[in-house]
Amino acid sequence: MISPLLRTALLCGSVLSVLAQTTGAQARAFTAKDLVSLDRLSDPAVSPDGRMVAFSLRSTDLARDKAVHAVRILSLAPGSTPARLTDAETGMDQPAWSADGTAVLAISGRSGSDQVWRFPVSGGVPVQVTDLPVDVGSFKASRDGKRLVVSLVVFPDTESPSDTRLRLAHGQADHATGRVYDRLFVRHWDTWADGTRSHLFAVTLNAKGIASGAAVPLMKGIDGDTPSKPFGDASDYAISPDGGTVFFSVRLAGRSEPWSTNFDIYRSPIDGAAPATDLTAANPAWDAGPVVSPDGRRLAYRAMKRPGFEADRFGVMVMDLADGSTREVDPHWDRSAASLAWSADGRTLFAVAEEMGQSKLFALDVATGTPTALTDQGHVSDAIPFGDQILFQRDALDSPAQLWRVRQDGGKAEQITHIDADRLSGISLAPAEQFAFKGWNDETVHGYVVKPYGFQPGRTYPVAFLIHGGPQGSFGNDWSYRWNPQFYAGLGYAAVMIDFHGSTGYGQAFTDSISGHWGDRPLQDLQEGWKAALARYPFLDSSRACALGASYGGFMVNWIAGNWSAPWKCLVTHDGVFDDRMMGFATEELWFAEWEHGGPGHTPWADPASYARFDPAAHVSAWRVPQLVIHGGRDYRIPLEQGLGAFDALQRRGIESRLLVFPDENHWVLKPANSLQWHATVAAWLGSHIGH
Questions:
Q1: Regarding the domain delimited by 430-690, which CATH topology (the fold level of the hierarchy) does it fall under?
Q2: Cys bridge to 139: 9, 150, 287, 433, which one at CB 3.0-4.6 A?
Q3: What phi and psi values does residue 556 have, to the nearest 5 degrees?
């Protein structure tokens, strides 16, 4: 049951901001099991009439150690609650509405293969729309409902889904397991290359809405992936309003793919009658996220300017599709757009961008580039204009993702979903506060402090000092299912997080400042941030503190071990760089290592000094603090040997240490049981060194 206080909160604003204040006997601490068990909302889609929204909901089946995907429907009328799209939870996601709004299309594996199905909103029997020889990875429907564009993994030399299926079956029947490669990527993120590519195909729907005829290839002769790997999705392509053209972003592979960030936007007729043409060949850097204006005359997209740099600012570009002329809408706006959507009149682009520890929704005037913030606190994503409103997802340090809406001309945002409200009603979520201080170069740096569960003024508490990865990332006001400060707060620790130089959302110069300076400028920020937090928050116990980080944060923990060990009673490094020189040879995305050591061409053999400058392995003789090392066996970004090397060094030096390896995980820990083990191991390590 929901208490009267909580029911009022549901009507008035953020559920969890009130839950965070619900202290007393009825409120317990947040746990790792809570974190793993929460339902996760994603992929919202608004119906054509603007009256309903469909969204994916991922639940966790702890007994089977797996995620279960379903689709929910929610009326946007006040007081509505989400309803299941079907009675059976057979696994479906990526919902999209049919053109007439009577059904939801979604990818489902109920036939034994991932295909597009149509689910009537008013009830009835689901209908299989596609029956392709290989799985559908993603899809979009044309506005008139006559075609689908689907992504399929195929061998690009055939462009035939049937031939791909036969070739894969033949390979499975061959008892020999060796693979021969003559170019990179040999492996990427967590997968070994097998010669296939993710390509787009057009599928025609008959009068009954069922796919008929052969799937038409739209990327003939293009050696590249759309959606991009490993994190691309349907936002990598778009269909024109008249349904006649497809626009997509792709990076050509060839020999240079592992050291290139040159994605281009291509245009292809949806009937495949002509080859795709490159619209942004003039830009040697990253072009992404095509979105077509409502009148079909202009293409908006996001573009970087510097080749080889994955964290450059994404400027907002608009192209006249008649003559190809292009201009940057926002050249003076020092923020990097993460997504774009057009207003119905074509005068405004709605952009999501990080700003000062938040991720906000902005309205950009297309004529002037003037930005207007439509949201304030929290982390926004998936903005969808409809009518005079915008639907968006919002999460925060005190709230998992929920759906919200706001008027396009501004005003107070309204929360419209309350996923897991009952589950969270008896849990106390810790409050967070942002603070600022002077860091490297006497520039302002920001951080967050999260109070521990059961906080009492006058007491002191041990501290988890969390260091984010990227390094061009942020520990801002958002919710995470991997590094969540509420977990540490629930254990009785305060959490401190610093957005050091190199972090995103504070201007491009601030982000750029870390390249070539992994071990000095951010270290100074962390040191000054620690001092500032101790001075401002007397409840932080400086004698009981542990530093923890993953990826770049793991590098920094290894660097701290030899260069700033004094404050720490223990350390935790997850998938962190240990031997920087070998990292430059063994990682898969070579553009990243080269840029961070001076730019394209700065390889370990061409510029060995840059790889030696901030190499944690060179300072092992100064290591003294007990350290927990965690690594994934399928992490090809920072290979397992980096973690093994750190653990070998700790053991050989006689330093108290522990190694946790997940043979089946990549750079992240994704499986529910593994996540619980990760959190239990970290909690035990912290408990044995800084108490509770």
A1: Rossmann fold (3.40.50)
A2: 150
A3: -65, -35
